[in-house]
Fold this sequence. Notes:
The protein is α/β, with parallel strands linked by helices.
Amino acid sequence: MVEDTTRLLGLAGLAVVGVADGADGPVVDLVTADEQARRCPECGTRARRSKGRRVTRPRDLPVGGRRPALRWCKRRWRCDEPGCRRGSFTEAVAAAPARKRLTARLRAAAGAAVADAGRTVVQSARDHEVSWPVVAAALAVHADAVLPVQPQPVQVLGIDEIRRGRPKWVLDEATGAWQSTVDRWHVGFCDLSDGQGLLGQVEGRTAQVVADWLLARPPAWRDQVRYVAIDMCTIFKSAVERVLPHAQLVVDHFHLMQLANATVTEVRRRVTVQVRGRRGRKGNREWELRNRLTRNAARMRAEHVDDLQAELSALPARIGAPILAAWNAKEDLLDLLALARTDPNRERVAEMLYRFYRRCAHAGLPELERLATTRQVP
Ligand SMILES: [Zn+2]
């Protein structure tokens, strides 16, 4: 019965757990029925620790001529991923997006009523019981979706994976379960130089998807692209090299930071195994410091940075010295990347770059040599 009600309501990712009679019509109790809602919107990691629950009341379209009141009991989660800036988040699904008080389909219907059914904004607002700015915004979204425009020229193009697609669901008749038919992975293209923002988003994450989108731009537009910022993923690399052979590939800052942190972790694990003959565990100081090692020192209190360096120096040299060298190289790289936002002169950039390379070269660690020879920032 409850499954039938879920099907009748048809909000993907939400399941009905009960329907009660309220003073103004039916009250529908909902819970989250999408595993993806547990993934951190910042880093995509599946959360393990719940922070409690919260009830939201998104407004929705009428069902059978009545407008049921939705009561969605959703969870709050903590993101434990080291290096992720997001401390906690609340579950969201595409049908009822985060921080929105209306369901996506109510918003879409309000916009479509104006664009496709000839209503005025005010009429649509009244029909859907929403404010007119909501309808105006929904109309703009609707228009953007149906009016494809070629983006303006772009000098620095960013290509990245986007984990929050709009899923589509079908009911599997045999098992009675809802299944996602649309790839949750999208590729986003954005303008990193002139502020046009997101230029396009396509489903899937294959080289062909990236190449197709680029090939759909006019040749003159493609010729203008000088740099393409990508993550470490080789799928994008091959597509860009094929379609934009003149453009220089660079790794964007966020992914360089991730790589630098991964390098510190790699060095820590290797020396622990080499010296202790096993993996790190409680009681090994370098293991206990693992999260602090991948934190940005610029965001730590000065005395904590001093403590961290002192603790590493106090470890047996064969463990402490390589980790300290890797940590220093990581911090050099972060300092260099932080410069990018301050409009520095070339000399200062060259100086910082030299410091980073010298550190990597002198440390004699294979991991740092690899980090230093990764594709460079422009
Ligand atoms: Zn996260």
